[in-house]
Amino acid sequence: MSYKKYISIIVLLGFMVLPGCFPKRVVWSPDGETAAVFTKTDFYFTDKDGKLSDKVYDNVYGVDWLSDNERLILQTVHEYSSWSEVEQSTGERLRNEVIAAARAFENITGMEQWKAKYDQLKGVAGKNLLNGVALYYLAMQSANAEAELIEELKQKGSFDVHDVELCSWKDGKFTVLKTIGNYVDIVMDISVSPTDKLAMLTVCDLEGDEDAAFDNDQLWLVEIETGNSVLATRGVALYPAWSNDGSSIVYAAKEAASGDDGIFVGKLISAQVTDGNGLLVDKVESTYTVAGMVMSIWTKVRVLPDGKVLFPSLDMRLPIVPDDVPEQMDMYVYDPGINAGISRVGIKDKLQKISGYDLNFFEVSTDGRYASLVDHDGRVAVLDLKNGEVTVIVNEAVHQLGCVPVWRNATELTYLSKVKENGKSRNVVMCWDVESGERELSKGWPEEVVSGFRD
What we know:
8 helices, about 450 residues
């Protein structure tokens, strides 16, 4: 395969050579009246007219609302500099994960031994977990350690714990109700079930080797009321979806370990995750392979209101020669009510309008009629899933993409853009309605809030 073709496939599939993951920075409540807004450091709320609250929280990454439009699940990060702090503030499962990793170091007393073991494990375990191991070692295993090693470990970075919390926003007051889980790695996606009983989390370390990240990422199911959790599977793409009744999930999974080129052949899977009483199963075993696909760690799946499943993939039949590799992804729909019910969304003749767009970062309107499409340079378009028509909203590259466009309701899309005023560019959060066009949501917001979407 030529270098040019190799690079084009990697960029097309949205792998780690691209500039990171793009979160939703604005997340609307189910009724579309309120949105959670978060930058890299600060957390706010806004109403549908753009009235922004004061800052209410720090270090939030990932939010999803419950159906009451008041409670929400979010992830925040807390830093710990001693094992005693970790013991006091985190759950048993996380502590056991650190202790299990620390067993590899329990007979190590010298600096060179530590460095050799660290280098051996960092690609799989990840830097943050090993920072936790350093805290545990200093507290529990360092009695015979050389002074040089002890001093070195004291200089290690903090251990970051990613806490998943149930919170509320009511009458202008933000409250953390409880913590329902702690994780070593970042929680990349949070999705509350339609029944409000469960939260689905994808957890991944994206700082190390991509193949190791994909092999070791985790899909967790958590009972919101009790915090009880089940590890559903590993090796999945980061954006799964719930069925409309909340009894099952749909996700893209890697079929096998990838080669050096980072291209993954995978499959679309449906898994039953609740029992006959609607309770979380002890182990996720009932799975069904829906389709084979070409995928990435970023591949998103969404279930439409009619139960059909929307997902992106390359249209490829293996084996294939390099010159025949498609230059653009397609969108596909799986209809569970039809045998072999997979069809391409009819945009084939309009692909030139969205050339270069990364279809992994689509989002669907609340009624399932429209899908937003986005490129890494900030271009935005809307696909009508009913007739295949594409409407380009932002046609020119305006910035490096900092957040994924999201739907407020059935017809209005929220996205990041720029406007020029008096010869100067200004970051803005815009809303575009299928019927009424554009309006600025962020009028009057401090510049650091909107700029923080891209930091």
